[in-house]
Amino acid sequence: MGRGGQKANPDEDLASNPLYAPFCGDHFDAMDFASRSLSTSSTTAQAQTIQLQQGIKSLQERIKEEVHRRQDELLRQAESLREAQSFMQGINLSVDSLQAAMRRVRAEVMQPYASIRLQTSQLHNLHTTADVLRHVLHRLKLVARLKAQLATQQEKAGSQDPAKAAKLLNDIAAVGQEIDLSGITVVEADEDYLQIASQQVHTQAKAALRAGMETLSQAEVGSALQIYFNLNELPKAVTDLVEGYVSQVERLLTNALDARRLTSAGAAAGGFLGGAGGRGSPAPGTAGSTAKLADILWQNLSKAFGDAAAAGRAGLVRELLTAQFPRLARIFEDTIAKLLQDTEVKGVEPALVEDETEAVVAAVAPFQQAYLGSCISRMSDAAASAFPGGNRSLPTSAELQKFIGRMHEELKGVGSSMRLAAQVAACVGKALRLLAEKAEYMAATGPDVRQMGGACTSAQLRNITLCSQLNEVHRSLANLLPRLPTQAAATLRAPLEAIQGVAVEAVVPLFRAAVDAAEQHILRMHAQDFGAASAPAVAGASPYMADLTRHIALCRVEYLSKFSPPPSSATASFGGALVERMAGRIVLFFMRHASLLRPLSHAGKLQLAKDIAELEAAVAENLLPLEAVGAPHRALRAFRALLFAAAPAPGDSLLLAALPRSTVLHHLYSRAPPALQSPHSRSGFSPAQYSMWLDQHSMEEALKFIRTAVEACAPAAREQPGFDDVYPVMLNLCTT
Fold it and tell me: What pLDDT is stored for residue 248 in this prediction?
């Protein structure tokens, strides 16, 4: 208790009391404290002991008070500890019970597990042993069959079948690869026999292959290759065979070009080295000796190439050389070119003349003929597949591209060989001519192809599609021509022209019908009065021109749009060329009949100028740009200028250069007096008949016809107004 009756905090009193403060430290040392207290204190040890005892007593009292104060809490903590201890005892009992159960389970399971493990090991060993025994038995059976087979072959020499023995050897080797049989006595006992049998079969295979190649027997070569196939050695055997022939060719060429052999051959033939030729033989280095050496050289080369080619004219080698003949031809040509280049010496005869070249090339002629035969067969099949002829369906885009791709592949494959490229181009030309013939029979015929005024008929659509497909064939091959040798490109031009002819002929009836319909519309202008002195203001096109422009628009929508690609001046095509001719014909036909209009007043000229503008717009919008029409459009513009110009003088080169003389003369009749009759009126022709006559005669004949009419009518018209203005000009135009 503190002063004033207040209860002090016992912990604070003890901690603040300097006497008891040292006892609160963490590193309190009793011996050190006692020593310092005795040495520094002024009191006796007994007094200090009494003080400490009082402090201990005070501390005990305070502890007792604290225990009394916290009695309930301490009792609760003690009860919790008792319950926890009881719970832990229960857990210990459960753990002990679980451990005992696990020991019992382990004791019960261990014995079956050990038994299963032992039996599994035994089963695995049994399976392994059974598998080994099965393979051993199978191998022994195969060896027994092999022995029987070889024994039969030895007994009956004529019934040898090494292919079966080879198959048995391969099966025996396969058994050894599946499982390791080393260390088994019965297996190792047969190893020596199998090695001897394998050598025997290989010897028979080599002999059969050699005999087959020498006799050019496909049956023997096939039997030998079957043996190697059964031995699982076919790729290696073929590679060795090809390498052997390559080595043979190299050896033959080396011997043929050996200078010492050439010299020896020349001497043996009575040459310049003291042979039978004696003193009269040419000396080394002279022209005669060089020529003789050249003869021997090319004889050897021809023989070497011939022998090498003969060695490969059967079986697989023939197929390889035939399929890869472009490479062989390129090697020949490069070798000959290099030889000529390396032996080019001024004043010395060339190392190779044309006859000698042909002799060397003739050595591989069988391969060349076989290659060209297969080439034309492939391309003809492609052409017949794409265009079967008759009324069958036209090829699809994929079929067409397949045919074009075949042509490109054949031509590009031989592009490096000028000689072979020309020959393959001839084969391509035959295929193209066959295609043109087939396509010609596939074109639709009948009245439907000329029908006009409505939707495109199925026959017209078929011909348009056929023309577009032939145009694609022509375009793709024509683009390839600049990259081909000159002779090959020249060979292909005629077949491509045949393709173009068939394509154009397929759609010519359609364009002819379109032009005929346009001409009928134009002829209706003669039923309209262009000579009225006073006419209402020009508000639109004439009725015939309105019908003509509608017809041209219909042609674009129903027919020209079906071409692929659509005709345009930007892309050259068969359809585009026909559209250009169509546009030119319509313009010239209109201008011809416009020049025949008579009488023609100023109002009529204005209406005619309006019609010309409408025609130009229709052509530009539906057919071609006006500048692409060319000379006919320039003539039409000049004719429009002539309508409002004075009579052209002979020196007026601008109008006369752009316009046909007959057109100028026909128009001048509209300015002449009525007594000066037009040529067709004087002869009793209608405008349509006169136009047909002009199509069938030359310009010179037309001018002569017009001059006759002018001179015949001149006396009757001489006194009429306007005669003197036009007659001299017309007469001059007819004669110049």
Answer: 73
Range(s) of the domain holding residue 722: 645-736
Looking at the domain assignment, is residue 35 inside a domain? Answer: yes
Residue of 606, 513, 623, 609 lying closest to 566 (CA atoms): 623
Amino acid at site 316 = L
CA–CA gap between residue 335 and residue 352 (Å, rounded): 12
- 114, 208: one domain: yes
Its pTM stands at: 0.59
Out of 191, 226, 261, pick the residue that ends a domain: 226
Residues 218-269: tens digit of each pLDDT: 788 888 888 888 888 888 888 887 777 777 767 766 666 555 665 666 555 5
The pLDDT tens digits of the residues spanning 590-615 come to 999 999 999 898 889 999 999 999 99
Amino acid at 375: C
Q: Answer whether 497's CB lies under 8 Å from 477's CB.
A: no
- Return d(Cα 323, Cα 316) in angstroms, integer: 11
Same domain (yes/no): 125, 21:
no
The three-state DSSP-derived secondary structure of 258-294 is CHHHHHHHHHHCCCCCCCCCHHHCCCCCCHHHHHHHH
Hey, is 659 helix, strand or coil? coil
Helices and strands (H, E) in the chain, number of each type: 30, 0
Residues 6+ apart with CB under 8 A from 339: 351, 352
Q: Does residue 18 fall inside a structural domain?
A: yes
In a shared domain, residues 210 and 239: no
